[in-house]
Design brief:
The complex is a heterodimer.
Chain A lengths: L5 H9 L10 H12 L7 H42 L4 H14 L1 H24 L1
Chain B lengths: L2 H11 L3 H23 L5 H15 L9 H20 L5 H4 L14 H19 L3 H10 L6 H8 L3 H27 L8
Helix pairs in contact in B: 1-2, 2-3, 2-4, 3-4, 4-8, 6-9, 7-9, 8-9
The chains are: A mainly alpha, B mainly alpha.
């Protein structure tokens, strides 16, 4: 005599009964955890960590917004000023933009960095949420 | 972790007794079953299930909300059972010898002979299962629980899901070979039980 296939084994394994909690088990456990709860670690640490994270995120967002606004104003002023002088020519305008970007490479770099940072922060925030 | 679980965890952390009751009630049966399967000792399940929930509540403030609550709880149950086995030193075989696993299984719709044969075979399978190395036995017994998928078992055993599949497959093959060997011995003239 042999077992025909593994299915027979699987059936036997699945027929094993589950454990049934005895009467009062849940109540006893909850009572025990209430007593032991006096020694539970309070969640203060993680709450404090959450507050710090939230404060850091807020500060980063505010700084980012300020930097972006500053850079935009600097760029916008330059662009408007230069655009008025070269309004007739699209080619000149493109050239001007290129010059502006080249001249303000540092600002543009800051702007890009700030935008990347804020994008990354929003992604992290979404993942954590 | 879904919204309901998150809310349940939050309430438990505020030591809301109803929430703690809800959590224990929701997971008591499967936690006990995992422990029973892992230890094979029915008499220790209640104590170890209790210990599991104490560890769960102690660890809840540090529970990573991105993880699945059930997987985390089952993993704790598995560890509690394994710790117990290490402390007691060896595999207790009382469950099979006392027939607790199968004696209470109703064989509805089967003739008495078929039911008796089935129970006998089930008992033999269970006996041989107990003799399998833990490396194969645990994945096989856990995979038989419908609440545990391969991903969950992989997390419990700290292996990859693909490894769980392989271990379950090899474990079942090994078990089948051993059961067949015992059945062959029983059938052979003058044969005796291998164990």
């Amino acid at each position: 005599m042999r077992i025909e296939d593994v299915q027979r084994l699987e059936d036997a394994l699945e027929r094993q009964p589950p454990w049934d909690p005895p009467l009062g088990f849940v109540r006893r456990v909850v009572a025990l955890t209430s007593v032991a709860g006096q020694q539970w670690p309070v969640r203060e640490r993680s709450r404090r960590g959450g507050l710090l994270r939230a404060a850091a995120a807020g500060l980063a967002a505010a700084t980012g917004a300020y930097v972006i606004a500053f850079l935009l104003s600097v760029l916008a002023a330059t662009v408007i000023q230069e655009t008025l002088t070269a309004i007739d020519s699209y080619a000149a305008f493109v050239e001007l933009m290129t010059r502006v970007v080249a001249a303000r490479a540092l600002h543009v770099a800051w702007l890009s960095a700030a935008m990347s940072l804020s994008f990354a922060a929003s992604l992290v925030h979404r993942v954590r949420a | 972790m879904d919204r309901d679980e998150r809310e349940l965890v939050r309430r438990c952390l505020q030591r809301d007794e109803d929430a703690c009751t809800e959590l224990v009630r929701a997971y008591a049966q499967i936690v006990g079953t995992v422990i029973w399967r892992a230890t094979g000792d029915h008499s220790v399940v209640e104590d170890l299930a209790q210990e599991t929930f104490l560890r769960v509540f102690r660890g809840l403030p540090y529970f990573d909300a991105r993880a699945k609550l059930s997987t985390w709880i089952y993993t704790i149950a598995h560890r509690v059972a394994i710790d117990h086995r290490r402390q007691t030193g060896r595999w207790r075989e009382e469950s099979s010898h006392e027939g607790k696993e199968f004696d209470n299984q109703p064989a509805t719709g089967l003739s008495p002979e078929t039911a008796a044969t089935r129970n006998e075979l089930d008992r033999l399978i269970h006996d041989q299962l107990e003799r399998l190395p833990d490396k194969y036995r645990l994945p096989v017994v856990y995979a038989a629980l419908e609440e545990l998928d391969y991903g969950t078992i992989a997390a419990m055993l700290k292996v990859r899901p693909g490894t769980v599949k392989t271990l379950v497959f090899r474990g079942k093959q090994l078990l089948k070979e051993r059961v067949d060997a015992v059945l062959g011995l029983r059938q052979a003239p003058g044969g005796s039980r291998a164990d």
